[in-house]
Write a structure and sequence with these properties.
alpha/beta; six-stranded parallel β-sheet; 24 helices; 675 residues
């Protein structure tokens, strides 16, 4: 029996023993909880009148419940490890030593008891870097005690499934290409794969980077940038347990389906899941006291594809998201300081503040407070003075009456009205003057209005967030990054692909991010594509003229291009080419340009296909089988087979759409055009 198999059997026995102990601990803990409940109900009438005993009982119960939760989490982690305890081994001879030590590497640490030397090392442990970063020969790693040097004498790779060794072999290279090819060549899952078995050296450098405050990753389609970013978060949580928890991390993701697609990664890597949010949804929540509804980015794309914009509309949209808008907005806000105010004397039961005194307070004492909150500061100042003079506390009615007096000194506090004044003053088309229920904000106005709101009312910094991940960075405008910088004064991982922008004009955010975030940015290029076959990746790159992407050598079926005179014939051809069988593929996508087109296609196919699902912007799960959706909702996802329904016209946005469709395909790509 090989060393790998012997060690596997040995570790499995140890894992089983540890699991039995944990299971026993959980059962004992449950009995303890039941006993506490029983004691409480039998004795609560006789407990002391001040409630001390009751409080002590509640605290003890809470402590035991938390302990049981921790044991349950440990049980789940050990059960996961039992299926596949390790995937690698590195033999390292420390400088000055004669014999090598064996380090087996897996998804998490495992020792017979806490504090014992691990039988398996977490892939994030310092010593595990030897496996990812070095071939045989001189090597080193940074440990808590300092740099440890020596020599890698041997490296092994394993695939273990259901506690059985599928294969094992000694490898001279960092991660054998055949292993990587086998992993990448497997069928697409309904969730993003974790990549701990196949992390490449350049990816490992990104994952283990703890020094850079803001890391920006420009990654080609299929380069693994999202996986790397999530593994980086898992590493940072492991590395800084005392300072950062999962609840301190936020991902800005494009939509709920993408959130579902990546939601298992961190739990698989031994961490709790993290918060995810769409920035458009966040903006809507911030503005719902001003408007009844807001369009999102997808509404904007649909408008553009259905009829396009007039040149003036397109110019206005671009201007409102740019640095130019910020200059205009600041000029408008400066003018508002004077034009918005109508000061007058305030008198309340003998206490008087003259217009001149109020002006002095407003423009000098409280000048740092946002304009539309400043009068509330004057109100508090006035009330404090009155209450101090009369040694009393004003009633709620009196306070409300005074608030009304102070706020009347604003010409208006309606953000919608003020934003319209800004538009008019700067030569933009104005919004309709309607009541709140009819105020629906076009996407181009969402973030400009949000910026004005924050400048006029102030913004609450998201202090609980210590690390922000921004995915699809190319879809955020200059203005949005300015807002994000103010909202999240924390470390960031920003990632995306400039070739996958959904703007009518291509933009490279790397040209302006340093201007917003300063020199603390670390820029990293991931230019090797792993997702697609060479045939698919080459075809996709030709669509947009990309020449700077390195391709992983995995070959497959040539891309099939066909034109059809009717949608029906195209769909029948798709049904013929689908390979969703037990021995075939697990996932396929039919991608259209607009939602209306997707609905028509889904309506036609749902009678003929048992395993078909439809994704719109309100969907929250990604399923096996055939998925019908738009190109923009498929961004970030991948499928075994992709069928794209394209148009004969080729605007910039439609070219981008075709590129996005093409780069979703793992194994087979069909590009169908309706004439």
């Amino acid at each position: 029996m090989s060393d790998g198999k012997k060690y596997l059997n040995f570790v499995i026995e140890k894992l089983k023993m540890r699991l039995d102990e944990v299971q026993h601990s959980i059962q004992e803990g449950q009995k303890e909880i039941e006993g506490m409940h029983e004691y409480y109900w039998e004795n609560y009438t006789e407990m002391d009148q001040y409630g001390y005993e009751n409080f002590d009982n509640q605290q003890a119960l809470l402590h035991q419940v938390n302990a049981n939760q921790e044991q349950l989490a440990l049980k789940h982690r050990l059960e996961t490890m039992l299926d596949s305890p390790f995937f690698g081994r590195v033999d390292f001879c420390y400088e000055g030593e004669e014999e090598s030590e064996h380090f087996y590497i897996g998804i998490g640490n495992f020792g017979e008891q806490a504090g014992h030397v691990p039988l398996i090392y977490d892939w994030r442990a310092p010593v595990s870097g030897l496996f990812y970063d070095f071939d045989k020969g001189p090597a080193s790693y940074e440990a808590p005690v300092g740099l440890l040097e020596g020599e890698v004498t041997s490296k092994w790779q394993y695939k273990i499934r259901n506690r059985k060794m599928v294969y094992e072999f000694e490898s001279d290279v960092k991660i054998d290409d055949e292993i990587l090819k086998a992993e990448l060549g497997s069928n697409g899952d309904v969730q993003l794969k974790n990549i701990v078995r196949t992390i490449q050296k350049e990816q490992n450098a990104i994952i283990r980077n703890t020094s850079d405050r803001i890391m920006v990753i420009q990654g080609a389609a299929g380069s693994g940038k999202t996986s790397v970013a999530l593994h980086r978060i898992a590493y940072l949580l492991y590395h800084d347990r005392r300072q950062m928890k999962s609840s301190n991390v936020l991902i800005l993701s494009p939509n709920s389906v993408f959130s579902d697609y990546i939601s298992h990664i961190l739990p698989e890597l031994g961490e709790e899941n993290i918060q995810e949010m769409s920035f458009d949804l966040f903006a809507y929540k911030e503005l719902r006291d001003t408007v009844s509804d807001c369009e999102d980015r997808y509404d904007q794309i649909e408008k553009e594809l259905e009829g396009g914009f007039h040149k003036r509309q397109q110019e206005q949209y671009e201007r409102k998201q740019s640095q130019e808008f910020l200059t205009e907005a600041e000029g408008f806000l400066l003018g508002l300081e004077d034009s918005l105010m109508e000061f007058q004397d305030v008198e309340f039961r003998g206490l008087v503040k003259t217009e001149a005194e109020l002006v002095e307070l407003f423009y000098f004492k409280f000048q740092e407070i946002p304009l539309l909150d400043r009068m509330d500061a004057l109100l508090e100042y006035f009330i404090d003075e009155y209450e101090t003079l009369h040694s009393c506390t004003l009633s709620e009615e009196d306070t409300d009456a005074l608030k009304e007096k102070f706020r009347k000194m604003y010409r208006t506090r309606d953000l919608y009205v003020l934003y319209n004044e800004f538009l008019d003053e700067n030569g933009y088309d104005c919004l309709p003057k309607v009541s709140y229920e009819k105020r629906v904000l076009a996407y181009e106005d969402v973030y400009p209005m949000m910026y004005l709101k924050y400048r006029l009312f102030g913004r609450g910094k998201q202090k609980g967030i210590k690390h922000l991940v921004i995915d699809e960075m190319q879809d955020y405008s200059y203005l949005q990054y300015e807002i994000l910088k103010g909202l999240f004064p924390c470390k960031m991982t920003i990632l995306g692909d400039r070739a996958q922008t959904m703007e009518a004009k291509n933009q490279d955010v790397l040209t302006f991010l340093p201007h917003i975030f300063g020199k603390q940015i670390r820029k990293i290029i991931m230019d090797k594509s792993y997702r697609n076959t060479v045939e698919i990746a080459s075809y996709a790159n030709q669509l947009t003229g990309i020449t700077d992407v390195r391709l992983f050598e995995r070959h497959g079926k040539p891309v099939e291009e066909q034109s059809f005179v009717s949608l029906d014939t195209a769909l029948e051809q798709i049904l013929e080419n689908l390979k969703l069988t037990e021995d075939g593929y697990e996932t396929a996508a039919l991608l259209t340009m607009t939602e209306a087109e997707a609905r028509v296609v889904f309506g036609y196919l749902k009678e003929k296909m048992p395993e078909i699902s439809y994704l719109d912007k309100n969907s929250s799960t990604f399923q096996k089988g055939l998925t019908v959706t738009t190109f923009y909702l498929a961004k970030g996802l991948e499928f075994d087979q992709v069928f794209a329904i394209c148009r004969t016209e080729k605007t910039t946005l439609l070219k981008q759409a075709e590129y996005i469709c093409a780069t979703r395909a793992l194994h087979e790509l069909y590009m169908y055009t309706l004439e």
